Amino acid sequence: MRNPQRIPWAVAAVLFAAYFALSVQRHRRMESTGYDLGLFEQAVRNYAHLRAPVADFKSPGYNLLGDHFHPVLVTIAPLYRLYPGPVTLLIVQAGLLAVSAVPVTRLAAESHGPRAGACIGLAYGLSWGIQQAVVFDFHEVAFAVPVVARVTELLVRRQAWAAARWALLLPLVKEDMALIVVAVGAHLYRTGDRKAGAVVTGVAVAAAALTVLVIIPAFNPDHSYNYFGVAQNGPENPFTRLFTPVGMKGNTLFALFAATLFLALRSPLALLTLPTLLARFWASNPFLWGTHFHYSAVLMPIVFIAALDGLDRLRRPGTGTLGRRIATAAPLAVLAAGTVPVALGAQPLGRLLRPSYAHVPPDVAEARRILAVIPDGADVAAANRLAPQLTARCRVLRLDPVFLARRPRWAAVALPGRAGPPPPREEVAVQGLAASGYRPVARGGGIMLYRR
């Protein structure tokens, strides 16, 4: 490429195409779910019509600001108003995650040359943490990933106040992003930018306290914050609780740093991951402990930029010939580490290499035909995997015995099949449909439609 400055954006464009293809095809194949694509679409849809971000799928009339603090979602509203539907959210997420590769690629290209920069940028985009976010429908954390990448880049460049300004955007994405902001403040303070570090840390602590103690409880129906990590029948010893189960949490740590062949551990920037990891391992929710879902996406920019910093340290005078050889070979090796799992189908983007994945199965087309029977604007109690097919045009509740008591006109049931058995609450709700006055009106494509 004649203009090396275009390489980061070229890498981002390639990644966007891959992310877009995977996420949209998942939705077309009815592999997306109400948690969280349908739920977030309801909130954005309300924002687009100048209403509070109510997500009826979580609970009828539930304001999502009572669950997490994510006002950044309002920025999707204008685009959603022009192009309503869940695909708009998937496109936004694909773009945000792809753009996060720009700071990583730019730093790598400046230090190691354009080709090495492209290798590192693609390796970052193929990292398991980013891929797991792509395959998890939609989540507001996608907004944090490019911001964290930019903040970490600015830390490498020793632009303290610029890094501070970018970091202070993170609490607008989600309240727990304050953990990364505190880590940034501590890094600035430790590296000599004490004023910037103190300001960042102070604002982060104040913002976190305001959101979890005041704002979220004000919107929460129980007037509380639900994610303080109180143990539920788990180990109470602080040390034991942080490190058990050893297998799952150890695997997460290993996978996180193995993505860069452990080069990130040569840089103090790796410490930026510590508060987030500690909070996740302290939590009582087992989903936070592992490598699935979106939880590690925000850490991947830190790990890759820390690895670049580690490589730069290997190239410094006095590190010897071996260090310089490692620094030269590392970009291609890191790319290989990210590419091989995809090629083998061990990571989500590997699905795009299967020709059959480009086709929508016949039962999905039949299921869509059945769902089209439901009129626009209707109230529907829907199974989790059917909800995002309806949230753009209906008021969708969860298929749950509690919400069936509100007597929605329609119920859309996912029958056991290729998606596996339904969750227990859905099974209980289905068993009570007849007694609640619902009668089957259509069946096909692995779903059953009921009307009251």
Helix content: 40-55%
The side-by-side strand order for the widest beta sheet comes to 2-1-3-5-4
- Hey, roughly how much beta strand do the residues contain? 5-15%
Radius of gyration: 23 Å
Amino-to-carboxy terminus distance = 62 Å
Q: Helix-strand pattern, N to C?
A: HHHHHHHHHHHHHHHHHEEHEHEE
Count of DSSP-assigned helices: 19
The shape, in one word, is globular
For the report, how would you describe the main beta sheet?
5 strands, mixed
| Number of beta-strand segments | 5
Q: What is the mean predicted local confidence, pLDDT?
A: 91
Low-confidence stretches: none
Structural class, from helix and strand content? mainly alpha
Short summary:
The chain has 452 residues and is mostly helical. The protein has 19 helices and five strands.
What does the secondary structure layout of this molecule look like, with pairings?
Blueprint: H1 7-28, H2 34-48, H3 77-82, H4 86-99, H5 101-112, H6 114-125, H7 128-134, H8 144-156, H9 160-167, H10 178-190, H11 194-219, H12 238-243, H13 246-258, H14 274-282, H15 300-314, H16 320-343, H17 362-371, E1 379-382, E2 395-398, H18 401-404, E3 410-414, H19 424-431, E4 439-444, E5 447-451
Parallel strand pairs: 1-2, 1-3
Antiparallel strand pairs: 3-5, 4-5
Helix pairs in contact: 1-4, 1-5, 1-6, 5-6, 5-8, 5-15, 6-16, 8-9, 8-15, 9-10, 9-11, 10-11, 10-14
Describe, in plain words, how this protein is organized in 3D.
The structure is a single chain. Helix content is 52%, strand content 5%. It is built from 19 helices and 5 strands. The protein has a 5-stranded mixed β-sheet. The longest helix is centred in the middle third of the chain and has 26 residues, at 194-219. The radius of gyration is 23 Å and the shape is globular. The termini are far apart.
